[in-house]
Amino acid sequence: MTINILGTGAIGSALAAGAAKHNVPYRVFSRTPATAVTVVSQQDEQILLHTPLSQPAKLDNSDILILPLKAHQIAPALQQWQPYVSEHTPVILMHNGMGGAEIARHTMPDNPVFLATTRMGALTHSKNHVRITGHGTTDIGFIDAAPGPLTVVQEQVLTILQHCLKDVVWHSDIYPSLWHKLSINAVINPLTALHDVPNGALLSGHFDSQIEVICSETAAVMRASGISADAALLAANVRNVAAATATNYSSMHQDVAHHRQTEIDAINGYIVQQATKKGISVPENALLVKQITALTQR
Ligand code: PAF
Question: Does the Cβ of 111 fall within 6 Å of ligand 1?
Answer without folding.
Answer: no
